[in-house]
Structure formats: structure tokens, C-alpha cells
Write a structure and sequence with these properties.
It contains five helices and three strands. It has 117 residues and is α+β, with helices and mostly antiparallel strands. A three-stranded antiparallel sheet has the order 2-1-3. It is globular, with a radius of gyration of 13 Å.
């Protein structure tokens, strides 16, 4: 899932249903990015940050430790960011917030939208 959610020359602000759902759930895209980045940067040690679809048109953000994921709790993840140190250490060393900020440039919103549908 992680690799499918990224692609060259993607990124930017999502459009269509996924963009509308983000705006409806978080107010605007900037607030969503801020909350998602906080979940990613705030995860102590290894883990993930997730965008969850509750099935009723509302989205939420969560973070899980290690290899855990929302599916283990019966939830549907539509976007996930790997914050295990191996995902970013070679390029960003201990600067996880820089990795998270750069990651937005490769998010494949078409793939995220398909997971929401």
C-alpha cells in the first residue's frame, strides 16, 4: 500500500471526492497536513501515520506503533506514511519532520481516491 500511494510528479492538493472529504473533515488541506504531520512526527520510535475512512464520509488521522495498522482494529486506512527510521534515515538522518514535509510531494492522490471509493 505504501508504495502504491506514491508516484513521480504527484503531490499537490487533492481534488474531487478525496479533496472534498479532507476539507469537510479537517476544515482545509493545510489543517489536514498539519495534523497528519503531527501524528507522523509525534510517533515515538517506529510506526505509521494513517488517514482513516470511517465509512460515513468522515476522515480521521491516527498513528500506530511498529507494524500495527488500522485494519487490525477493523478500520479502513486510505493513506499511510511509514515513519520507521529505515524509511528516511539515509537521506534525512534524524530529521523526521523534513522527511514528512518532502513526502507530500510524492503522494499519489489518485490512488488515495480509489481507496476512498
Amino acid at each position: 500500500m505504501f508504495w502504491e500511494l506514491m508516484g513521480p510528479s504527484k503531490g499537490g492538493e487533492p481534488r474531487g471526492k478525496i479533496g472534498d472529504s479532507i476539507k469537510s473533515s479537517f476544515g482545509d488541506f493545510a489543517k489536514f497536513k498539519e495534523q497528519f504531520a503531527a501524528a507522523a512526527a509525534g510517533r515515538f520510535g517506529s510506526g505509521w501515520a494513517w488517514l482513516i475512512d470511517d465509512g460515513n464520509g468522515r476522515l480521521s488521522i491516527t498513528s500506530t506503533p511498529n507494524q500495527d495498522n488500522p485494519l487490525m482494529e477493523g478500520k479502513k486506512a486510505i493513506l499511510g506514511l511509514d515513519v520507521w527510521e529505515h524509511a528516511y534515515y539515509l537521506k534525512y538522518q534524524n530529521k523526521r519532520p523534513d522527511y514528512v514535509a518532502a513526502w507530500w510531494n510524492v503522494v499519489n492522490w489518485d490512488s488515495v481516491a480509489k481507496r476512498l471509493a
